Amino acid sequence: MTAVATPRGLFLLSAAVTLAAVALGEPSPSLQVALLAPLVAVLGVPHGALDIDMARALWPLQRRAARLAFGAGYVAVAAGVLGVWLLAPGPALAAFLAYSAAHFAGDWRDELARPARLAAGAATIALPAAAHESEVARLFTALAPAEVATACAAILHAAAPPLAAVALAAAALARRPGVVAELVALTTLALVAPPLIAFLVYFCALHSPRHFVETIARLGLGWSRGVAAALPLSLATLVLAAVGAAVLARLDTAPEVVALQTVFVGLAALAVPHMVLVERFWTRA
């Protein structure tokens, strides 16, 4: 079974189970938020915890000083993104959506041409707003000023249909039935399930497993060595996230807002150095 096929099966099964569960009764907003942090922590964070191993494959980091310098630079970039969120949350949200779309396009790196996979990555971001624009705007309001949140949701709502159509047509013309199945499942999830649930299924059952499996294969690590390599940075990330959540809670921030800000602003901060490293790694590979 290939590195692409394994997460594909997991995602399609997860999507089917989720759609069946939603058909029986949509989970409450509080339950959706309660699921967010633990699922992202356990199933989402580890795929980014292989970044140090990718860096070692790219550069000579045998010396401790070199590893410390890389770590310091990585943290500095992430901290800079956090600073932008504090100073200008509106532009930060818009930028986060844009670079997340570009990053998610990598899920189809080996199966679609660059324009088609960029459309697929952007559709992944936009589709939840196609049928749930007001809910997406409400979630965005926890991350940015209301007017920016509303504008971003409206733009995604308008962009979702053409983006999904382009991606699906390109996958069909390229004779990629597996990609077509993924995009149909993504579209159905986004239209039927609440936005947070659709995001969780995509991020935790497709994007993260695919990235993890492809990376350990490229690095020549087995599952046990890959999990062991990801564990230290995963734990460190979770500790930092817990500290951030505790600080937000002490500011009398609502629990739902604490969860949304901790997860999404945290992902936004880590995504920038992660994206730079991933693009460099796969370009070299």
Secondary-structure map with pairings?
Elements: H1 5-24, H2 29-44, H3 51-58, H4 64-87, H5 89-104, H6 114-126, H7 128-131, H8 133-141, H9 146-173, H10 177-192, H11 195-219, H12 223-250, H13 255-284
Largest sheet: none
Runs in which pLDDT lies below 50 for 5 or more consecutive residues are none
Provide the β-strand percentage band.
under 5%
Number of domains: 1
Order of helices and strands: HHHHHHHHHHHHH
Mean of residue pLDDT values: 89
Total helices: the number is 13
Helix content: over 70%
> What structural category do the secondary elements indicate?
mainly alpha
Rounded to the nearest angstrom, the distance between the terminal CA atoms is: 21 Å
Structure summary, number of beta strands: 0
Rg computed from alpha carbons, rounded to a whole number of angstroms: 18 Å
Shape: globular
Describe this entry's structure for a reader.
With 285 residues, this protein is mainly α. The chain has one domain. It is 83% helix and 0% strand. The chain is built from 13 helices and no strands. The protein has helices spanning 5-24, 29-44, 51-58, 64-87, 89-104, 114-126, 128-131, 133-141, 146-173, 177-192, 195-219, 223-250, 255-284. Helix 4 packs across helix 13 (255-284) and helix 8 crosses helix 9. The chain is globular and about 50 Å long. The model has no long low-confidence stretch (mean pLDDT 89).
